[in-house]
Amino acid sequence: MCAHVVLAEDDQKQAELVRRYLERENHTVAVVHDGRNALDEVRRQQPDLVVLDVMLPGVDGLDVCRILRRESDVPVLMLTARSTEDDLLLGLDLGADDYVTKPFSPRELMARVRTLLRRTAPKQSPKDSVLRVGGLTIDPGKHELISDGVLISCTPGEFRLMATLASQPDRVFTRAQLLEQLHGFDKFITTRTIDVHVMNLRKKIEPNPRKPTRLMTVYGVGYKLTDDGR
């Protein structure tokens, strides 16, 4: 898969290394070295993927990700030297789709890029694949989530989670099962990632996120999507 990638990395040697590896895989790469230029380049180019360092000058990577998520569902892979779980989950909470901690192997990074591009590639989908659960409509072909007639903006990870749950309404999925659907078997991703996605989705689809009636927790097991009667 050949893609257009915006690479935002302030370390020029690191940026050059990553650019070379991306171009070896036939991707077109635009390199920027600060947050403001990253935003400008993404808005101008409409890329297939953003590889985004957290520690950028001017506007840092977390703020860039936050802004991009208000404007676009472009896949975002974050590069971070912050290795604590809370720091990594913060990136996911802001809408990043994946992350790689520094120092990293370029081969591992390319594997993550390939996986993320495969997961987020547009897919042709027949009309009968549209999923409806109560007042929710999930259209994988159009990558649309509609709640009570309102189009909901969500990240690729949030959308995949909703599509998985909606594929079997009222079935309880464990966090591990949902994590496998979103990220495959990845030792760097924890099941708390699912909790972050669920928290964000409830803010978007629940009349009262503190008392959910759609995206339900089954304590000690996991989550399910249920028809709330709407």
Automatic annotation (TrEMBL):
DNA-binding region residue numbers: 128-227
Gene3D superfamilies: 3.40.50.2300, 6.10.250.690, Winged helix-like DNA-binding domain superfamily/Winged helix DNA-binding domain (1.10.10.10)
Residues annotated with 4-aspartylphosphate modification: D53
Tagged with keyword Transcription: yes
OmpR/PhoB-type domain boundaries: 128-227
UniProt domain Response regulatory: residue ranges: 4-117
Record's keyword terms, sorted: DNA-binding, Phosphoprotein, Transcription, Transcription regulation
Cross-referenced PANTHER family: DNA-BINDING DUAL TRANSCRIPTIONAL REGULATOR OMPR, REGULATOR OF RPOS
Descriptive protein name: Response regulator transcription factor
Biological source species: Kibdelosporangium philippinense
